[in-house]
Amino acid sequence: MSQQPSQKEVVILGGGVIGLCSAYYLQQKGCQVTLLDRGDFFGACSKENAGLIVPSHIEPLANPGVLAQGLRWLFKRDSPFRIKPRASFEMLCWLWAFRKACHPGTVSKNALVLNQLLQESRHLFQDLSHHLGFTFSECGLLMVHRTPKGHRSHQELGELAHSLGLQAEDWTSQVLFQKEPAAPAVSTGAVYFPSDAHLNPETFLGSMLESLRAKGVQLLPNTQVQRICSDGRIETAGGTIKAKKVVIACGSWSTQLTRQLGHRLSLQPGKGYTLTTEVSKPMPKIPMILAEEKVSITPLHSSMRFGGTLELAGLDPTVNLARAKNILEVAGTYQPKEPSTLGSRLWSGFRPCTPDGLPHIGYLDQNHIFAVATGHAMLGMTLGPVTGKLISELLVGQKPCIALEPLAPKRF
Which CATH number belongs to the domain containing residue 132 in this structure? Predict the structure, then answer.
């Protein structure tokens, strides 16, 4: 007769930034936590993302401007945002919900929720940096432009920021080059967001992992989940684990698990690219996002990370140099000596995108066994701490610091 598996209190599926932060805050509340990852923890998007902590990103992915621009870019292979046409019922449902979420009233409501999440997470990052010892660089973010259209879009974002109580400064080109000489030479100005910050993702996640290990969280790397059952059983190649509570934090792969429970999670993988390289020009001190190129630039100690693009094309891992054209061109201006080698260093990964630009955080089932924490799109790193805190409050039955109704996984 086979031995029954011993029951764990909380099992978290997924060892990226969301899973690690959830484990951290659950452990703080006295929970016995087991963390599973199909790799060696904090791989994929968590490790290779831009490392930007961006309270300035208060405008949800779903907004009228993105909808209009996305339609113009639909058949342009090298556009910064692209939806690859394909026959998929789930994709059609997602697009219909995305279109509805682009209504101005919905966008305004969602921006308020997103702002709450962003501000709380920034405060949590400050606290985590004191306790874990990683470098949290609070030097702001520059939204750099070179055309009047780019300037207008940044001014509009600055006005939205002001309406929500955030700081934003409109810099002329003279002020920009005085304060950040390493800005692209063609820049005509920038809007500066002083409350933004950046970090080295690998350093932060390594510090988090060491803290969890020291505090007794059970870590199970290289553990592929084969099947999950409605009673909390998790079947892996190494055996079965039984849990009182399960947190699904597998990013774009979360839907593969929720389907086994009979739940359709409205989520699409958005492929993006980053490139990390040493540079031959002076390195910027302040991270930047270039308006026209849609490329981010992050200084990481002795290297720089360039990132961008968003393509909804399913879980296709193919590296498409045409899609990364803007990233390669911007990186080439900082490393002119060997531009031909840049393409070979591209990394691609999937950001889990919801139709309305808000994450999925909450219970899936009426028995409150399975919770979901995914759908953060390009804000996974920024929203990691607040997501972990909300998951911990949800699972121990405390009132959440931010209302979870707008984030309910079954809201579509």
Answer: 3.50.50.60
